[in-house]
Design a protein that fits this description.
Number of helices of chain A: 15
Strand content of chain B: 15-25%
Number of domains of chain B: 2
Number of strands of chain A: 4
Radius of gyration of chain B: 20 Å
Strand content of chain A: under 5%
Strand order of the largest sheet of chain B: 6-7-8-3-9-10
Shape of chain B: globular
Largest interface: A-B, 33 and 47 residues
CATH topology of the largest domain in chain B: Rossmann fold
Order of helices and strands of chain B: EEEHEEHEHHHHEHEHEEHHH
CATH class of the largest domain in chain B: Alpha Beta
Largest sheet of chain A: 2 strands, antiparallel
Number of strands of chain B: 10
Number of domains of chain A: 1
Structural class of chain B: alpha/beta
Order of helices and strands of chain A: HHHHHHHEEEHHHHEHHHH
Structural class of chain A: mainly alpha
Distance between the termini of chain A: 14 Å
Oligomer: heterodimer
Helix content of chain A: over 70%
Helix content of chain B: 40-55%
Radius of gyration of chain A: 19 Å
Shape of chain A: globular
CATH topology of chain A: ABC transporter involved in vitamin B12 uptake, BtuC
CATH superfamily of the largest domain in chain B: P-loop containing nucleotide triphosphate hydrolases
Strand order of the largest sheet of chain A: 1-4
Distance between the termini of chain B: 54 Å
């Protein structure tokens, strides 16, 4: 019983922060090449977006097939801030997060009244809209070719080293995980999880379901936007491909594979789907089919995802609550 | 006695069928008002109207004399009305204690920033809600399983958990939709005691229940529905002895039943 409580704390509760921090601190001991660091930066960046999406999907139970839209909004805001508004790159990142939050707030109101498939299609539509906008507004965004992003300057130094980016993105991923874990364990998080299980019961107890759905939607958009902005700064260029439907699908697959309603699972899912294509290079042309296959296999054999599945094995009473 | 809930001339129709037709119902503090009637009589629909799940086509609803007609459930909860559900609406992914803690929602400071940053105020709030929740869980006899996942609890326990959760919202009007459905006689007796305790604490209880022994025993006032209309109302004695009630439950008069049988 105590062992199972400890496993729950580690995998589901605040203890997962310990695992994540250990991963960020210890991975540099086993990786060496610049390329490895680059891949790990991608893992931390995607983890951020997936943690946000998991708050929406895994905790509040609302689907989004358009989160790449927010991802790209963050990336392009970061890219456009310096040339358009003369902002320094470090400031255009949070400005992009605020903008995405605002957009999510505005479109979330009508969209979140929809349920299930309808909501999925509406969010999908949003993603497509962003893609069209970024591709067609050539004068502003450079169109399909994308645009250059001004490098991040810290203390007068242009940040280009993958190692430094590793620590920046790793640190921000930990911050994002910490905030998310705090939220889901708080009274607000409880209200959000209640909506997932029974909206009608939550309402009868005074929970304003519409308001909380909107809140999570805005928060998850902010996470996606932060991830997109970081990726833009790291890569030094952006293309409309960031808002591609397949990126949205990739994010959803990461959530489902790692485990809905698991912050640690979000990072595990992101890590696996970023790393696997690097390892299985022969899959290059079939990467998207591969995503589909993983999704199908997870749904058949591991419904609850990797981390909750592991937790179930360890505790055996099927305990899924958040302590 | 203080009249807390008053609903007048409520009506709603679905596809031309009058599911609830011109029904009035009232409940005072400390009273148990039961709504009975055969299946399809409109009991749950009436509950859905009073609790704000449906918006009534006709009629008005008052809480403490204040017109609350058409308010959504979460606003009604703020006015002191909450309910349980006929088909369980448990938060299955949470522990029993967390389920009841959701009921404390209205009394928690909802400062999202404090929650995101895990400020001390959030932890204090959490501890407070948990204390209150555990008291209530104790009251319905589930203390031993408070930290078990709700999904792993037996049906009878979940029925009581729903009541504890509703009580956590400190309602002045509590609608109980078949709290004893599917429970064995011993569990029914426990629920009976719990309900009487709730009413004794000054809550106006409105009860939909099929267990007639339970209804007749604890109700201060009974409303009988049939085909969406109010058949009669009164105390247990009056309802028990009214021939139209028996007829509503056992179908039409014997001659008509036979005629239908011959037609087939």
């Amino acid at each position: 019983m105590i062992a199972s409580r400890r496993a729950t704390w580690l995998l589901q509760g605040r203890g997962s922060l310990l695992i994540l921090a250990a991963a960020v601190l210890l991975l540099p001991l086993i990786v060496s090449t610049n390329f490895h660091y680059r891949v790990l930066v991608l893992v931390w960046v995607f983890s951020l977006a997936v943690i946000g999406l998991n708050l929406l999907m895994g905790y509040a139970g609302q689907v989004s097939l358009g989160h790449a839209g927010f991802f790209a909004l963050g990336a392009y805001s970061t890219a456009l801030g310096p040339p358009l508004l003369n902002m320094p790159p470090w400031a255009s990142l949070p400005a992009g997060i605020a903008l995405s939050g605002l957009v999510a707030f505005v479109i979330g109101r009508p969209i979140l009244r929809l349920k299930g498939h309808y909501l999925a299609v509406a969010t999908l539509g949003f993603g497509v809209l962003v893609y069209m906008g970024l591709s067609n507004e050539i004068r502003l965004t450079g169109g399909p070719d994308g645009m250059r992003v001004e490098r991040l300057l810290l203390f007068g130094w242009s940040v280009r080293s993958n190692v430094i980016w590793y620590w920046i993105t790793g640190g921000l991923m930990l911050l994002g995980a910490w905030l998310a874990l705090n939220l889901v364990g708080s009274p607000s998080g409880r209200a959000i999880r209640a909506i997932h299980d029974s909206e009608v019961a939550a309402s009868a107890l005074g929970v304003d379901a519409a308001a909380y759905k909107l809140l999570v939607f805005v928060i998850s958009a902010a996470y996606a936007s932060a991830a997109g902005g970081l990726l833009a700064l790291f890569n030094g260029h952006v293309t409309p491909g960031l808002s591609d439907f397949l990126i949205s699908i990739q994010l959803v697959t990461m959530v489902v594979l790692g485990g809905m309603g698991s912050i640690l699972g979000s990072v595990v899912g992101a890590a696996l789907l970023v790393l696997l294509p690097q390892v299985l290079t022969f899959l290059q042309d079939y990467e998207h089919a591969f995503l589909g296959l993983i999704m199908i296999l997870t749904m058949i054999f591991l419904r609850s995802g990797l981390v909750p599945g592991l937790l179930k094995l360890l505790t055996k009473d099927g305990h899924e609550g958040n302590p | 006695m203080k009249e807390i809930l008053k609903a007048e001339n409520l009506g709603i129709e679905f596809g031309g069928v009058k599911a609830v037709d011109n029904i009035s119902i009232a409940a005072n503090a400390g009273e148990i008002v039961s709504v009975i009637g055969p299946n399809g009589a409109g009991k749950t629909t009436l509950f859905n109207l009073v609790s704000g799940v449906y918006r009534p086509r006709t009629g008005r609803i008052f809480l403490h004399g204040k017109d609350v007609t058409g308010l959504p459930p979460h606003r009604l909860a703020r006015h002191g009305l909450t309910r349980t559900f006929q088909n369980l609406q448990i938060f299955f992914r949470m522990t029993a204690a967390e389920n009841v803690m959701v009921g404390r929602h209205l009394y928690e400071r909802r400062n999202v920033l404090a929650h995101l940053l895990s400020m001390p105020s959030a932890a204090r709030q959490q501890a407070e809600s948990r204390d209150r929740a555990l008291d209530l869980i104790e009251r319905v006899g589930l203390r031993a399983v408070a930290d078990r996942s709700a999904g792993s609890l037996p049906y009878g326990a979940l029925k009581r958990l729903e009541i504890a959760r509703a009580l956590a919202a400190e309602p002045e009007v509590l609608l109980l939709d078949e709290p004893a459905a599917g429970c064995n006689p011993r569990e029914t007796e426990e629920i009976d005691e719990i309900i009487q305790g709730i009413a004794a604490s000054g809550v106006a209880v409105v009860l939909v229940e099929h267990d007639m022994r339970l209804v007749m025993k604890i109700s201060s006032h009974i409303v009988v529905l049939n085909f969406g209309r109010k058949l009669i109302e009164g105390n247990a004695e009056r309802v028990k002895n009214d021939p139209s009630v028996l007829e509503a439950y056992l179908g039409q008069k014997r001659e008509r039943v036979r005629a239908v049988a011959v037609d087939r």
